[in-house]
Write a structure and sequence with these properties.
Strand order of the largest sheet: 7-5-6-4-1-2-3-8
CATH superfamily of the largest domain: Spore Coat Polysaccharide Biosynthesis Protein SpsA, Chain A
Bound molecules: uridine-5'-diphosphate, magnesium ion
Distance between the termini: 23 Å
Number of strands: 8
Order of helices and strands: EHHEHEHEHEHEHHEHHHE
Radius of gyration: 25 Å
CATH class of the largest domain: Alpha Beta
Helix content: 40-55%
Largest sheet: 8 strands, mixed
Oligomer: single chain
CATH topology of the largest domain: Spore Coat Polysaccharide Biosynthesis Protein SpsA, Chain A
Length: 309
Amino acid sequence: MRILSIVVPCYNEEENVRDFYNEVMKNEPFFKEKELEPEFIYVDDGSKDNTASEVKKLIQDDPRIHLVSFSRNFGKEAGLYAGLEKASGDYVVTMDVDMQDPPALLPEMYKYIEEGYDSVATRRVSRKGEPPIRSFFARKFYKLINRMSKTEIVDGARDYRFMTRQFVDAVLSMKEYNRFTKGIFSWVGYETKWIEFENVERIKGETKWSFWKLFLYAIDGIVAFTTAPLAFASFMGVLFCILAFVLIIVTIVRKALFGDPTSGWPSLVCIISLISGVQLFCLGIIGQYISKTYMEVKQRPIYIIKEEI
Ligand code: UDP
Ligand code: MG
């Protein structure tokens, strides 16, 4: 028997905890056939509803279920990390509890693991059911980050992944505080097989991600996986130095040829405001990196556990 750990981060998901378990256990014949012993690791990310007590009820029926409760909401990335740390399986799958990651794909994913892949990842090929403006910015984000970063971040990639032990250990060896799991999965390398599926809408409850939260998450991703914006800041600096140099020459020559140089007041105002804008923007970019560095240097734990069963 080999253990298959199923890691599920949950935040205010009381309605989904049991349905998720039932849905995954529909694969029981497959688990039996392949001699896989499922182990569930529910990570309760500081839920304010009855998520933890729902999981405890499940544990009474099935001792292969584990619960890790955080002392507060640490975010999905922390939940995933904790789940991977607690997972004892030869194989580990990370999934959302809201059934947007169809458990029916598990047999297909395992097939590729048997073929020798180290991880099987999923991406949704459509974004139906999502607000169009969100899809638009999501697409732009993937275009931008892939142009800047050497680590490939696949558009539509989910955190639904089937991994071998060696892959999981590699992911766990990355102990950074600012976690952008999509990037980490890609960064560790190994052979990954991609499976595509149509977007599934959430059945119960609602999404925990507001537009603003997603925007900040996008910045986290960029700062964590590329330093290109810093290079851009230097580039702008050089560009404006050259521009300034040209303007100095022009001004001197004009003074020498035509005399009175004071007529250029409006253009001066434009130049000063433009350059101060660019300077502040570049300072902001540097600030982003410094703030992330600051958080890393503190070496705070990624999560804190309140209860573990
Ligand atoms: N989640 C979490 N902590 C959070 C936010 C979300 O553990 O702070 C979990 C959530 O319970 C779900 C998964 O992460 O299992 C994905 O969240 P959600 O469905 O809200 O995101 P979406 O699918 O809308 O991107
Ligand atoms: Mg969801």
